[in-house]
Amino acid sequence: MRVSQYLTVIAALAGVASAVPAQAKERLTGEAQLAKMLDGRVAGKPVDCLSLTQIRSSQIIDDTAIVYTTSDGTMYVNRPSGANFLDDDDILVSEPRGGQACRMDIVRLIDRGSRMPGGSIGLNDFVPYPRPPKVPKN
To answer: How far is CA 49 from CA 9, 42, 81, 82, 100, in A?
Structure first.
């Protein structure tokens, strides 16, 4: 290959490489993602425990919190100690006692891809964010 051909290939690769960041979607910080999720909701009085029968789902917000959604649509935000270990690609493993997830419970994190343990975190208060009231149409 001639020098001019190498330069053409390098220029083409540089063009592709520079185009990728322009097309990449900006990733929200954990706090921004949580704020977007809770938009329109108002925090209620924190509670110590949640009944497991009411929890419909849980979602990890990177480096920030765990959001538990209950059957009535209320989102409970738990900002555990060690939140900097939270990764939205982790699997939460808990061993609840008495049918409840409670403050001071220890939750283990497992990496989804490798299935390797990723550490443990201690839960804190659960802050409820109920669904906003429906505005009547006139």
So the answer is: 61, 19, 16, 19, 6
